[in-house]
What does this fold into?
Amino acid sequence: MDKKAVKYLVFDIESVPDARLIRMVKYPGEDIDDAQAVKNFQDEVLANSQGVSSFIPVTFQYPVSICVAKIAEDFTLGEMVSLDFPKFRPAEMTRLFWDGVENNYTEASLVSFNGRGFDVPLLELMAYRYAVPIKRHLKDKFGARYRFGTRHIDLHDWLSNYNAIKMQGGLNLLAKILGKPGKMGTTGDEVYPLFLEGKSGQINDYCTHDVLDTYFVFLRTRVMTGEISRDREQEIVRRTKKFLEENVSQVSAFAKYLKNWGDWEPWP
It folds into this structure.
């Protein structure tokens, strides 16, 4: 897909706890291994959240998968990529992502689900860690860091009226309203166990599925804003299904998504 034709980058990240950093910051001098350090921190987070979540904060994470869908001005899907596939090296994924934002797709807007609350801060911290320049991203006052702009459309932020409500059900709920798969067995809290088992491909498939769900949610929000009609949205959805079918041999994640595909049938 021609770089100038890309107007939106729909993306998602899967990440895992940085055990080494956790040991250094949380438990210096203690004779514990990586697994115990992560467990201790998870238990602490769980207790502090009164049993709600054991998810370790973004500052103690690093990416293990980054998937991006390149979307044209007419909102059609042009290409999907998994950065640094199949090695999934955090430093290289970070470099590739920011190189795209800073140099290759300078006119494209980011589209995410809770990207302002997690994905972009994580990638900024990775830029800090690996000394990756992100000058344009940081310098643009009304760019991707500006909450109410269009350079980064965080669908979670947007649909929750900028956190006026809790978006209970999240991306899974929004995808299922549209008939799309949503969660299909794997959930976010299973990423770290899969990583420990060396199942990077399964993690990347999960990330790919989330990007597809995010894309279809994005399309529906563009119907709401009047940028496309409902009929045009459904035409794009059908076209996207054909794209997945034509590329299923190259991208294994598409097979499971298609198997669980559903069409939009609104109720009640």
User: Anything to note?
Assistant: The chain has one domain: 3-259. The chain has a mean pLDDT of 95. The longest helix spans residues 200-224.
